Amino acid sequence: MASSNRTLLQSSIVRKQIVAVTGLAMVGFLIAHLSGNFLIFAGPEAFNGYSKKLHDLGPILWVLRIGLIAALLGHVVLAIKLTGENHAARGGRYAVSNSRGDGGFCKKTMIYTGILILVFVALHLYDFTYRDKTGDPTIVEGVNGGLSLGLFGLVWNSFLQPWHSGLYILAMIILGFHLSHGIQSLFQSIGFFHDRYTPMVKKIGFALAILLAVGFISIPIYVNVVRTPHL
Ligand code: HEM
Fold first, then answer.
1. How many CB atoms lie within 10 A of CB 164?
2. CATH class name, domain 11-226
3. pLDDT value at residue 99
4. Probe ligand 1: pick from 31, 48, 124, 164, max atoms within 8 Å of CB?
5. Is any ligand 1 atom within 6 A of the Cβ of residue 175?
6. What is the number of other CB atoms lying within 10 angstroms of the CB of residue 223?
7. Averaged over 87-95, what is the pLDDT?
């Protein structure tokens, strides 16, 4: 790699900007992912139909996946590097932020909530992406004549287990903490600071973080309240 690129990448400003832009890309994924998952309220046909459309994208889905994986890796690796540098610079306290002086719990715990989200994503991919979507775990008791309900059935049955729902709800609360500081902070990292608009960006960022967390949490709660899906 040319030395000029190496110097550029070593600059903490550029690293923060990469963390910000990759973070923004993943927030975009979460909005799309939540919108798709809300089809669980419409029943198995709509939910499984959407998943089939996604998978029928074939190579395009893989391009999107590789983009998402690259964003995740860039975000995590650089955020950990920046945390380490900040740790060294601040004489032992961990903090990654460029916000001007308002040090809340969500800001101080970004590295921890980030790592917990990473662990969640690994478990989650095992849960719903790399699981058989035809066998017994996809049959919801007393529904559809005992026939498989595919991915919908897998998600439904998973959330009928209280520990599984509890784990997802906890993970979504942690996601909410991470995003509630992350979204507003990313705008400052990409250089957007305006006396009049920054307070609004902070409010919108906070509201979006809450909406995403509550939106995802509503799914396991819905399954546990309704218990038998409407076909
Ligand atoms: C209640 C919350 C959630 C539910 C019910 C849910 C549901 C699902 C389902 C059903 C799939 C499989 C899709 C398919 O194969 O068609 C999936 C995949 C995935 N989910 Fe989630 N999800 C949730 C939260 C999240 C969160 C918070 C993240 C990220 C932080 C996330 C990241 C992913 C990723 C990366 C995939 C793989 C997408 C692919 O196939 O490339 N999910 N999720």
1. 16
2. mainly alpha
3. 47
4. 124
5. yes
6. 22
7. 70
